[in-house]
Specification:
By secondary structure, the protein is α/β, with parallel strands linked by helices. It is built from 13 helices and 12 strands. α3 runs parallel beside α4, α6 runs parallel beside α7 and α12 packs across α13. It is globular, with a radius of gyration of 28 Å.
Length: about 400
């Protein structure tokens, strides 16, 4: 009897205990669901176009250098024009520090951010995109491309990561193609009687900028039957390595007409090697550069190089605009975008204007705040349109503020 009585009692007690456990289990599930809904609702509220609070955007920089300081300047100017609050984080050339800064910002340690924009500094993109996805924060990758392995893993914006809304990459391919064409045209005009011969001095073979820039160069050369690529060498991007390799190339190949360069430090080494070998840059051999700065402008003015390109620090503004639009326009209008942003081409024809503009940028950086960056945004436009990022209004604000008149702008 005892077994007959105890059995049902024990079963009842087990059932009561199980019911309690199930009840607690389901209560935890409901609580988690409520928290998720509230969290998502809060995030959606932060992105609402009707929200009176200005969007707060974090901008992550690699280092405190002139280039990255210009990136920050343009990001802040675009933010002020759009009515967004911008906070800048400086990693000090430390990839771990950048990742920690983004973690803090994404988790709200630095206050609540609506969007974060950052470069792929030393292959940090995967980690940072995953952090933004985990915290459901809109993000924009800018100023650097993914390598082949990262590209295969991540794909395009919004394909794997919903909150990765856009990717900005300087248009190195087109810039390199345009400069190669300028070198070909210059050499062909002075030596019409024979086929042309060239060599290239690139950076690390696997670096994304090196790959893109060589692709642009080869696109032009391979479309012609009157230009022969003798050799392309790969360096550590330093002037010294470019100097050593150019000396060898110049002695190996006779009658070189032009040397294609992948960056400004390489160009400095190339020019030094040519002079050491007794050649005259700009007369015996034509050369390009890649970058904007006092040294490149001097080389252009002296006729040592034919053309240079740069200005991708402006991507600080373009990245903020894309983040702003992703937050405050319908998702269908800013969704899964990858843009190759234009670089500024500089020759002797527009050298004076560009040099004046950059001098003004150094002496009176507040002039950038005169640019109305709203003209580049899709926010408030009567209908969706393609992004048309341009240097012209920026140069105009800088140059005409100095009492000069802007001439033709050499953009891609």
């Amino acid at each position: 009897m005892l077994e007959l009585i105890t059995g049902p009692v024990m079963v009842a007690r087990r059932w009561e205990k199980r019911s309690t456990i199930d009840k607690e289990h389901w209560m935890r599930k409901v609580a988690a669901l409520v928290l998720l809904v509230v969290s998502c609702w809060g995030h959606a509220q932060a992105l609402s176009p009707d929200d009176s609070r200005p969007p707060r955007i974090g901008v992550f920089l690699v280092a405190d250098t002139p280039f990255w300081n210009r990136v920050a300047l343009f990001a802040r100017a675009a933010g002020e024009s759009l009515g967004a609050e911008i906070e800048v984080f400086n990693a000090g050339l430390d990839r771990v520090r950048m990742m920690r800064q983004l973690d803090w910002a994404a988790r709200g340690v630095h206050g609540s951010f609506d969007a974060l924009v950052f470069p792929n500094f030393l292959q940090t993109a995967v980690y940072m995109l995953e952090a933004c996805e985990r915290e459901r924060i809109t993000c924009v990758l800018f100023n650097s491309d993914l390598d082949a392995q990262e590209g295969a893993l991540l794909g395009q914006p919004e394909r794997r990561f919903r909150y990765w809304t856009a990717h900005l990459v300087p248009d190195d391919v087109q810039a390199s193609a345009a400069m190669t064409q300028a070198l070909v045209d210059r050499a062909a005009a002075t030596r019409p009687e024979r086929p042309l011969s060239m060599v290239g001095v690139n950076g690390y073979r696997a670096d994304a900028p090196a790959v893109a820039r060589e692709q642009g160069m080869r696109r032009v050369i391979e479309a012609r039957d009157d230009v022969r690529i003798r050799q392309v060498v790969y360096t550590d991007w330093s002037g010294e390595d470019a100097y050593t390799r150019t000396l060898g190339l110049y002695h190996r190949y006779h009658e070189l007409d032009f040397i294609w360069s992948a960056n400004y430090r390489s160009t400095t080494g190339i020019l030094r090697a040519l002079k050491m070998a007794g050649a005259s840059p700009g007369y015996d051999v034509f050369v390009n550069s890649f970058g904007l700065g006092a040294e490149m402008f001097r080389q252009l003015a002296d006729g040592e190089i034919e053309i240079t390109a740069g200005g991708h620090f402006v991507e600080g503004a373009w990245a903020v605009i894309l983040a702003f639009d992703a937050l405050l326009t319908p998702q269908s209008e800013v969704s899964g975008i990858k843009l190759h942003t234009p670089l500024l081409l500089v020759t002797q024809d527009n050298l004076d204007d560009v040099r004046l503009a950059l001098e003004r940028l150094e002496s009176e950086p507040e002039r950038v705040f005169d640019v109305d960056f709203r003209q580049f945004s899709r926010r408030g436009q009567p209908e969706p349109r393609d992004y048309r990022f341009s240097f012209e209004p920026i140069l105009r604000a800088l140059i005409e503020g100095a009492g000069a008149t802007l001439g033709p702008v050499g953009t891609l």
